[in-house]
């Protein structure tokens, strides 16, 4: 039997020493921990102060089902203090943004008041120079005989006068007015916008991180993408789903490089000019009968001189085709069979491995899944199709470049 060692330091007991091999525990003060050389054996030492706040501190160190134990030990990172501090910090940062908007509201009021004032002064000056009160009198005075003639005379005087001193006066007035408008400070959003964008992106990434801290079993999620990019064809949710699949949770930015509608002329020439030499392109198409489909490849698109044709291989088998089925996306990944992911031919439209082939006019084309992209679809499951007419008949097209950070 192991001799029971108790603390004789007469100090505050701070830790429990777990000794599962002897089926015993010891209550220790900090000096005991030092004396017994336990300072590095954290897995056996339970800090009493911590266990009061986080019972999982104890539970994660005893003999429990490993799933439970792993979850609890990861949950230890989520402390109330941390939540409290982060909450306060972000409240302050959001308050600062709010203050920025308060300041913008003030500037807006000042700006429009100033414009109103300058306009008023300008009109006052104009009225004085052209003796406008005389004109008003002429119009209002019902006793006046030959009213029309008087008005014509007034206008004639004005017209002849305008070449002389009156002209100089009016020009001076206009120049002075222009100068004042020019000097009225226009509220600028440039700095604010970049500040808000960067703050909001950081905010998004922080709150996402804490969601994961408090639920360690969920996969770390990529914070929602920078606010600026969206798709006109796909819903934000599906667009983000596509980007997540492509970026594989890594930070990246997007760049819209081509957006066209049939009326404005989607054609192979504008297409190849836009994609030439670019990699990591996501293409989204919408047909006249509302079918939505497209593809992504990391491979480089190149505008070859006709009639050259060339296949480009995707060594990492990342490329995929997709279509929208109801509300959801259906993916068709490239097969690992060393076939070209895309086929370059600038007298045609985009061609994904021969499986999705769009003609130069973006109206004709073929779908023939299974050669390069997987077609292991169970009967009854959605298939990549152009829609009811079985022709691309592309009405809208978006091409987005994904740029890893
Ligand atoms: Zn002690």
From TrEMBL:
A family per Pfam: TLD
Ranges in a coiled coil: none
SMART domains to which the protein is assigned, alphabetical: TLDc (SM00584)
InterPro entries: TLDc_dom (IPR006571)
Domain TLDc: start-end pairs: 231-387
Protein name: TLDc domain-containing protein
